[in-house]
Design a protein that fits this description.
heterodimer; A: 194 residues; mainly alpha; Arp2/3 complex 21 kDa subunit ARPC3; 9 helices; B: mainly alpha; 2 domains; two-stranded antiparallel sheet
Chain lengths: 194, 252
Amino acid sequence: MALRFRFDTRTLTLIGLGAVINIVAGQVNTWLRLPIFLDSIGTILVAVLTGPIAGMATGLAGNMVWGLIASPVEAAFAPVAMVIGLVAGLFARAGWFRYVWQVILAGVAMAIALTLVAIPIQIFIFGGATGAGSDVAVAYFVHVGRTLWSSVGLTILGSNIADKVISALIVWFVIRKMPNRLATTYTMLKYNRA
Amino acid sequence: MSTLLFRSGTSWLHRANPLTKLCGLLWATTAAFVLPWPAAFALAAVLAAWGVQSGIGGSFVRRLLLLIGPLAIALLVIHGFLMHYPDSRAFGPLTFSLGGVIHALRILARLAAVVSASFLFVATTHPADLLKSMDASGFPPGLSYLVASPMLLAGMFAMRTRAIHDAQRTRGLALDGSFWTRLRALPALLLPLVIVGLLEANQRALALHGRAFRALPRRTVLDPPADSRGGIWVRRFLVLAAIMQGGLAFWR
């Protein structure tokens, strides 16, 4: 039996939009100088609006395109972005983007899931370092006697947990403020709009 | 905003078919994982020299050093002086391990080769040419759109973000101050951008429908990048070699 899967045209345009939001949100962050990444807002948004598969595709497209035009290292972390889309989509499908406490828990779950995927990538491909400031934390944990796996894991989780919670809260804010005329066109939102 | 690493030129690499270069990147990436580390360093050096010869030397070497430099320091410190290897010996308050340094060099060589190949590809391939190549080779239009739209929209959205930033600043939005002040400014900057983007996504989908962009038979490309029968065979060979190298890397 042939398995065929195809996004409809609007989902395709949303995936493109999500990937762009991931890229330009970083620009907003340079103005605000917040100690977070903000590079997953588009992924989470598309996952909440259209589901986990589209969320994964947004994460993949965003990282691959960003790797293609600016920073090739980002492409290696495409599976991490896909997991963010998957978890966000599953939580949204379960109706966990309705109240603030649910959104915070969804953000925490995303951070934990991405950590599990990012650890092997960072260790096997990058040897535990990425050339970013967080390498100092990895070095510190290794120096105090932790294994490389736990050092990398703690660093990734620590640097991502606030980012994913804030990103999820921003998406929650967006879907609450979305005009009804627009919101009613997204069937997935029926699970998450009070 | 120009985020592209592409540098225009007339070198052989600039003129080569983008899909052939993409297959070359795939081959170089998998080769970096199976070659001994001195050979991986040599591959990175050859690719860097090729970049210089192709007229993209300045930005190529600068980007390479910016990416690889901090990684090299972090890897050598973590593996050479902090991690415990069987040959670790005391070195002041730290330890030193030659095995750790060699392990760091092995990872660094691999990354240098992969990053060099990636930069060589992106610096000599304009995204529009890659898309034309994909269309001309029969890739699904949906896939081409997924690759194209973020690249083509990024500049426009960056300008729009700047306009929203300026408008909100004019209305008195504070972007300085405590962490909470700056965090509270985040929705004011992002919400208009996202809502307008969602409205446009609907219009864009209607426009694509209107142009029947998924209709069969596929549209022909007006000016596809040059390709040849030999180029197609080179791509097949590179993909086959990359699959075998990837398998070898996993098997080891």
